[in-house]
Specification:
The chain folds into two domains: 274 residues, Succinyl-CoA synthetase domains (Rossmann fold); 157 residues, Succinyl-CoA synthetase domains (Rossmann fold, 3-Layer(aba) Sandwich). The protein is α/β, with parallel strands linked by helices. Strand 6, helix 5 and strand 7 form a beta-alpha-beta unit. Helix 14 packs antiparallel against helix 15 and helix 16 runs parallel beside helix 17. The relative contact order is 0.08. The longest helix has 17 residues. The model has no long low-confidence stretch (mean pLDDT 93). It starts with a helix and ends with a helix. Helices cover 40% and strands 17% of the residues. The strands form four sheets. A seven-stranded mixed sheet has the order 9-8-11-10-12-13-14, sandwiched between helices. A five-stranded parallel sheet has the order 2-1-5-6-7. It contains 18 helices and 19 strands.
């Protein structure tokens, strides 16, 4: 079944449109702001217009067959219009409201009836109990969330999430990557995560796929989709909840999903080359690593820092997380010390403070690591963020520019690593992006992201 009408629609109808629902006005405004070229049709027999658009009494009165029909009515009234979708020839639908399989036995029966209509009519369905679909490249949305800056949020990450709130959390931070499509899939009554992944594998705008998963409803299709993504060279990054019994009970009441046994699920992901992350921090950092044109081909990571304490913290965390930090050869160490001066420890990380001349020491340290055959990835540790009340505001960007200069001359991936999660300076992000380098944040999450991608490349996940 094609998902094109659902995920990249050319026309949208909304059953239950009313000006009493702020989300509907936001949706219409977002479509206008994005420059959606297709027809947008409110449906409600009580109004001649809704938010300035001609309102139609029923689906049968529309001037054309809409690609997707969104339903903003209570669960008790969904079937009144849903049964007409096959009759008018609509091939996709979104049901926002809850009250279905996650609620009670009657809700399960109602959801089963909707699924039967979809199966019989070849209709792809997002939901019920969801937020909808957002496609920045197609300039379309059924997602109940205002779009403020289309260009900022557009990118190459395909996102599918059982939680609409999680999807919003991800889309609200587009400093380092944007989205090709974002899907809040809810209860997955007729169309599942597996089908969404399958579509993203074929989508030319999607480079990496991110999933927030509560439960898998079609295991065989799911692993087949993972295998297709692997063959296409598109990493699938998965954050799976349901590790505890308490969480599994919450999932049952949220989207009626029955969560898989955690150990078996993790083993399945590993067998099919998906990257399983532990939290949103790790997911964000892996997606950031995927923005570079040069992905880590090995996990041997070497560092340039400006603080002995930072060097010590990096070494501790790297050892705890199993990150490879190679000990430099005598020749590499001597070359580094020829400019920087005596280095503490085993000279990885290279402490470029030396005699205090960063302008000379930092580029030299980066050059030494680029020439080191035992280094796969080069990381510079510098914290930078907006509205800092201390220090010289021109100092950190200068250090970052030196990393950018080194990256442009190298074939190895370069990263700026901030020691605390989420803190970054957008000026520095822009400087590095022009040099095919990325900012990672959070020592532990950043290092694990590099390691995940190195293992993904080498098929050792």
């Amino acid at each position: 079944m094609s998902l094109e009408a659902l995920l990249n629609p050319r026309s949208i109808a909304l059953v239950g449109a009313t000006e009493n629902q702020p989300g509907i006005g936001q949706l219409f405004a977002s479509l206008d702001k994005m420059g959606f070229k297709g027809g947008v049709y409110p449906i409600n027999p009580r109004y001649p217009t809704v938010f300035g658009k001609t309102c139609y009494p029923s689906l049968k009165d529309l001037p054309e067959v809409p690609d997707v029909v969104a339903f903003r009515v209570g669960y008790q009234r969904v079937l009144d219009s849903f049964v007409h979708l096959p009759e008018i020839g609509a091939k996709a639908a979104v049901i926002y409201d809850g009250g279905f399989a996650e609620q009670d036995e009657e809700g399960k029966k109602l959801q089963a009836r909707i699924k039967a209509i979809c199966d019989e009519g070849g209709i792809s369905l997002c939901g019920p109990n969801c937020m909808g679909v957002f496609n920045p490249h197609g300039r379309s949305a059924t997602y109940m969330m205002p779009v403020r800056d289309l260009e900022a949020v557009r990118g190459n990450v395909g996102l599918v999430s059982h939680s609409g709130g999680f999807a919003i959390t991800m889309m609200n931070d587009a400093r380092r990557y944007g989205f090709s499509v974002a899907i809040s899939c809810g209860n997955e009554a007729a169309t599942t995560v597996a089908s969404y992944i399958d579509w993203m594998v074929d989508d030319p705008n999607t480079k990496v796929i991110a999933c927030f998963i509560e439960a898998i409803r079609e295991p065989e299709k799911f692993v087949a989709a993972l295998d297709r993504a692997d063959k296409a060279g598109k990493p699938v990054v998965i954050l799976k909840v349901g590790k505890s019994a308490r969480t599994r009970r919450a999932i049952l009441g949220h989207t009626a999903g029955i969560s898989d046994e955690p150990v078996a699920f993790s083993a399945m992901l590993k067998a099919h080359r998906a990257i399983e992350v532990r939290d949103t921090d790790e997911m964000s950092e892996v997606l950031t690593v995927c923005q570079g044109k040069r992905w880590p081909k090995g996990g041997r990571t070497s560092f340039v820092v400006g603080s002995g304490g930072v060097a010590e913290l990096v070494l501790d965390i790297a050892e705890q997380e199993g990150i490879q930090v190679p000990v430099p050869t005598t020749e590499v160490r001597q070359e580094a010390e020829s400019v920087i001066g005596k280095l503490p420890g085993d000279a990885n990380p290279i402490d470029a403070w030396g005699h205090g001349d960063f302008d000379r020491n930092l580029p030299h340290g980066l050059k030494v690591l680029d020439a080191d055959p035992n280094t796969d990835v080069i990381v510079q540790c510098v914290d930078g963020f907006d509205r800092s009340p201390m220090g010289n505001p021109d100092f950190a960007p200068g250090l970052v520019q030196k990393l950018a200069d080194a990256s442009m001359k190298s074939k190895k991936p370069h990263y700026l690593l901030g020691m605390r999660t989420g803190l970054m300076n957008p000026v520095q992000v822009d400087i590095l992006k022009k040099a095919d380098a990325e900012i990672l944040t959070g020592t532990r999450a950043g290092l694990r992201a590099i390691d995940y991608m190195a293992k993904w490349h080498n098929r050792t996940l």
